Amino acid sequence: MNQDIQNYNDSQTESDKAICDILCKIITENLAGAENKIWHAHPVWFLDGNPIVGYSKLKGSVRLLFWSGQSFDEEQLQNEGSFKAAEMRYTNSDQINEEDLKRWLKKGIEIQWDYKNIVKRKGVLIRLMTKPY
Prior knowledge:
By secondary structure, the chain is α+β, with helices and mostly antiparallel strands.
């Protein structure tokens, strides 16, 4: 695990650390080759410089965020923000369904909107034609 991400996880309360550790393990196993780092103060995984998934501590929960998640057609994920992001919030590590998370990660690889170039395109997102990883 990336040491900065480990430090982020270790800084959480015991119950939130358990959530973060499980999320990190499953994400890392299923996004082999993805760059991962602390970005805007939270752990985020990137494919070819494009953010795919990350998590962050919110008041009362840990939020798992998929940048292109609104395009996944997954009822459990809630829309977040004005672009294409969707989230799942956890208050206990027992709430993490590994099969759901693996499916969402697979969709995160297959369905990507180009956040990497959103500033250059003045806020316009385009769908990427993704390659298998």
